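Components:
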Amino acid sequence: MKGIIVREPGGSDQLELTDLPIPTLSDGELLIKVETAAVNRTDIVTREGKSGYAKSAILGVEVAGIVEKTSETSHFKIGDRVMGLVNGGGYAEYAVMPANRALKIPDNLSFEEAAAIPEVFLTAYQTLYWIGKLKRHETVLIHAGASGVGTAAIQLAKQVSDAKVIVTAGSKKKLEFCKQLGADILINYKEQSFDEEVLQATDGEGVDVILDFIGASYWEKNLASIKKAGRWVLIGVLGGAVVEKVNLMELMAKYVQLSGTLLTPRSDEYKADLTKEFAEVVMPHLERGNIKPIIDTVFPIEEVATAHHYMEENRNIGKIILRQSL
Amino acid sequence: MKGIIVREPGGSDQLELTDLPIPTLSDGELLIKVETAAVNRTDIVTREGKSGYAKSAILGVEVAGIVEKTSETSHFKIGDRVMGLVNGGGYAEYAVMPANRALKIPDNLSFEEAAAIPEVFLTAYQTLYWIGKLKRHETVLIHAGASGVGTAAIQLAKQVSDAKVIVTAGSKKKLEFCKQLGADILINYKEQSFDEEVLQATDGEGVDVILDFIGASYWEKNLASIKKAGRWVLIGVLGGAVVEKVNLMELMAKYVQLSGTLLTPRSDEYKADLTKEFAEVVMPHLERGNIKPIIDTVFPIEEVATAHHYMEENRNIGKIILRQSL
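Structure:
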C-alpha cells in the first residue's frame, strides 16, 4: 500500500509517499481501508522529530474509512463506515484502529466530514468535560476559537451545555465564523485586551472554564479572567511554554484549578473510555446535524506537504483533510 | 466579656486582652461560651495586617465551648458541647458560630482536644478529598507532616482511605511522630532529596496526590514527584510564593492538575457543606479514637503573645491551644 513517511526529522519537504506493507491486525483491532485522514499539529511535531510518542513510522492520528477486516467479534462488521483515533499510521491506504475507539459514521456525513471529527471533538470533549468539568449554563472562555478544537468546543459548549461562550481570535473573519457556531462574546485579541472584555461580559466575576491553547503569553490575562474556583485547562503553548515569575498565592487566593493535558499520548484505555462517552453524549448531535464537523480544505494525499505548510501558516478555519486518490 | 484584639498591625506585642461587648446573634447562629480556641497561621497573618479577609476585630477562627444561646430551632440546644469554625472572634469569652458549622464534641474528647480539630481536620479533609480527590489505596505525599494540617492529613489518608502516606519533615523527632500517626515513608528534607525518595518508594511512578504547604522552593521536586495525572494541592507558600520559571509543557506532559486553595476565606455555604460531609465521614473515627486531635501546648489566653511567638518559631508538633481562665 501507499503511505506517507518522514525521511529525516525536518520540514514538509521530508514527507514522502512510499510503498509500505499493509499493517497486520492484533486482537481487538480493525483494519480500515482509509478514505480520509486529517492533519493535526501533532503530525507536524512528529515530522520535526520533537515528539516522544510516535508509535508508527507513518504519520496520522485519525482517519475515516471502511472496515476491511475485523480480528474478532465486535459490533463492527466488514463494510461499516467508521472514524476514529489511530496510534499513528493514518496517512496511508490502510490503518489499524482499536475497535473500542471506532465510531460509526452517521449516514448524513461524508468521509471528509468524518475525518474532521475524532481528534478535535474528542479533545474538546475531554478538555471541557473530563478536565474542565463544564456544567450547564456556565461560562467558558475559548482561545483560538476558529481553530480545530476551538470550533468543536464552541459547538459542544453551546449544544451540550447551553453555556455562555466567549471566544478570542485574531481576525474579524474568524470571529464571525465563531459567532455562526454559537459563540456569544467575540474578542479580537489583536485589538482588545481580552481580560477586560471577559470581566465586562461576566459582571467582573470571570469565567468558570478556560480552554487555553496559548500558555505563557496569556498567563496574566487568563489569571485575571478566571472566576474564583474556576478550571483552567492548558492544552497548548502556541504563545510560549515558559512563564516568568509565577505567583502561587494568586492561584491560592482564587482557588484556581490549573490542569495540563494532552490527548494523543494517553493510554488506549483512556481513549476507549473517552470514545464511549463521546458516542453516547455527542453522536446524537452529529446525527441530527446541530453539531457539525468544520472542514477548511481537502487535499489529495499526494499534496501532503502543501497541507502541512498550510497548517503551519495558521491559515485554516477548521480541519485540513487528506483524501486518498479515487 | 474579655477578648483579644490587635492594637496596630505588627508583632505579637500588639495583642491586647480587653473588654468587649458580647456579640449579638443573627438568624441561624449559636452563641458559644468559649472554653478553648486554637491558634492558626491565619491569625498571625491577620495580626500583621496582611490579611484581606478579617471579618472581626477579635482574632481566632475556631473554638470549642458550650452553647449559651440559639437564635432559632436547630439540632443544638443550650448546654451542648460544640466545636467549629467561626468568622473571627474566637479569642474571646463568647463567640458566634453559624449553627450549620457546629460539630458536637464527642464525649471522649476534652475542650482542648476539640479546639484542635476544626481548622486542621476540615482543611485536611477539603484538600485531600474535595480538591485532591484521594481514592482508596492511592499514594499521597504530605509535606510538613508534623504540622497541624499534616498530622490531620496523615491520619485521614490512613484511616479513611488506607492510602500509602509519604511525609517530609525537618527533624527525626517530627518524622517519628508522623510514623506513630501512620505515615509509611519518612523523608528528612534536610538530609534527603525528597523527589528521589518519592520515586524510589513508588517504583518511579510518583504520587497520586501532593499536599503542598511549601510552594516555590519545592516546585521542581514536586513536579518530579507527581504521578501522571496526579493532583497537586497548593495550600501554603512557606517556601516562597514566586516560582522564577514555570514550564507549562511539563504540566501538560504529565497531565498535572494543580489546584490552589484556602479554607478561611471560603463562603459560609462552602464551610457548612464541608462540615456536614466531615461529620458523616470523619466524626465516627474521632468518636472511636482511631483518629486523634494532636495538641502541642495549651496556653492560658492571657499568654496569647507567647503562643503566637511559639508558632512563629515552628516549634510545635500539632496544635497550640488557648484556654479561658478557669
